[in-house]
Amino acid sequence: MIKILNYSEINGANIFSRETSSSGVEDIVSEILRNVKEKKDAALLDYCAQFDGTAPEALEVSPEEIQEAFAAVDNKFVNILKKASENITTFHSCQVRNSFILNECKGVITGQKVVPLDKVGLYVPGGTATYPSSVLMNCLPAKIAGVKEIIMVTPAKYGKINPIILVAAKIAGVDRIFKAGGAQAIAALAYGTETIPKVDKIVGPGNAFVAEAKKQVFGVVDIDMIAGPSEILIVADQTCNAHYIAADMLSQAEHDKMASAVLITDSPELAQTVSLELENQLSLLPREEIARCSIENNGKIIITRDIETAIDMANEIAPEHLELCLDNPFDYLDRIRHAGSVFMGKNCPEALGDYFAGPNHTLPTNGTARFSSPLSVDDFVKKYQYTYYTKSALSKVADDIAYFAEQEGLLAHARSVTVRFDE
Predict the structure, then answer these.
(1) Closest CA to 204 of 181, 176, 175, 170
(2) How confident is the model over 114-165, as pLDDT tens digits?
(3) Residues contacting residue 190 through CB under 8 Å, at least 6 positions apart
(4) Contact between 34 and 281 (Cβ < 8 Å)
(5) Which single residue of 65, 72, 107, 383 could bond 163 by disulfide (Cβ 3.0 to 4.6 Å)?
(6) H-run or E-run covering 387
(7) 235 touches 265 (CB < 8 A)
């Protein structure tokens, strides 16, 4: 059964399980990265044979395989992917930043240019579950940003990629797709091989080995984030439907055994009813073992004196997903400081954001929403700034700059300005 606690019995920072299982992973990943960096395609193919059942005849997916994938996926799902893609595109198009230029003083021009990255690598898992939604969420913001080339890697079990992944990739606009997964695929993207090009940034979720590989190659390339187990925090009052609340909690618990689902409520009666509903609904799930482990080990129901206290706890926790299951959620929106994505009202389950609404589902976990943001168009651009002064404009500030530099003991800095006026 899920634990029911009073808010005074627990520290907000400890509400979610922050543990990750990574024993022995670091050294294994280091060896894989080194091997692929040195031996390139040869090492990559060896790992494909070892982990995916066979080494593919060709690492890159062909146009014919894309066509076969569309033939294998029913039209209803293809159309749903297209609708979701439209929603995601509409939302993320509003995030596009513009370059700017300032010319307020005579002879002085400063500005900032926003430019897209050249190449981005997208990792797509291929383990116990298949996530075409992640293809859309990671690729479409990059396309909107103007990234020149998007390279996707994903495991090909016995040489085959799940066709819905290929269909999603085509709809999202992925440029090239390769049959490689795990830490070895991250190595290929980071260092390049004879077949897979080196990229500038790697995005996308993965298991502990993928996460560790992204962590180790950061600096060689950029990465999106190191995501932890999935989290959902629900704030609900006594008017909420316990059946709905339990279903929303289980939507995250079924991800993996380390996932965390937490309810904060001011109603002891709702707490007890949700606890019973969780037990009833668990038995209906195909992934019952995973969800039950998550609920029993990491799940919690916390009773507070009022909803205001619940909101304060939510800010302290900084959850990945926050549901405000209240009749008047917008009354509280301005009080939310720390959350990855907020779902407003009683008819906005977190799954709406996973697949369809438009906001991104790649979100900060482990309390990092205190200082980081969801994946966005911003993640696929970089900025540089520029400055232009005429000699006349420089003369007006030369003494100030030189004096500033002298205070730091950097006389060559000062002279680089004053030398222009020695004559």
Answers:
(1) 181
(2) 999 999 999 999 866 689 999 999 999 999 999 999 999 999 988 899 999 9
(3) 33, 121, 198, 199, 202, 217, 220, 221
(4) no
(5) 72
(6) strand 381-389
(7) yes
Alpha-carbon span 339 to 320, nearest angstrom:
6
- The residues with which 73 forms a beta bridge, in sequence order, are none
Task: Tell me if 408 is assigned to a ligand binding site.
Answer: yes
123 among the known binding-site residues?
yes
> Does residue 321 have a known ligand-binding role?
yes
Q: What is the layout of strands, in order, in the sheet containing 321-325?
A: 3-6, 300-303, 260-265, 231-236, 321-325, 341-344
User: In terms of Cα–Cα distance, which of 91, 82, 86 is closest to 376?
Assistant: 91
* 22-26, 35-39, 199-203, 256-260: segment of lowest average pLDDT: 22-26
**pLDDT-based confidence at residue 10 (cuts at 50, 70, 90):** confident
Compute the distance between CA of residue 68 and CA of residue 298 in angstroms, rounded to an integer. Answer: 42
Average pLDDT over residues 37-51: 96
* Nearest residue to 234 (alpha-carbon basis) of 278, 265, 259, 255: 265
Residue 187 amino acid letter:
A
CB atoms within 10 A of CB 99: 13
Read off the tokens for 340. 């990855």
Catalytic residues: 320-321
pLDDT at 256: 87
The residue with tokens 């543990």 is 19
Chain CA centroid to CA 237, Å: 30
At 320 the three-state DSSP class reads coil
Whether 184 has a binding-site annotation, put simply, is yes
Half-sphere exposure of 79 (CA within 13 A, CB side): 3
Cβ atoms 73, 358 nearer than 8 A = no
- Tell me: pLDDT of 182 over 60: yes
Domains of the chain, CATH where assigned? 3-19+228-358 (3.40.50.1980), 25-223 (3.40.50.1980), 390-421 (no CATH)
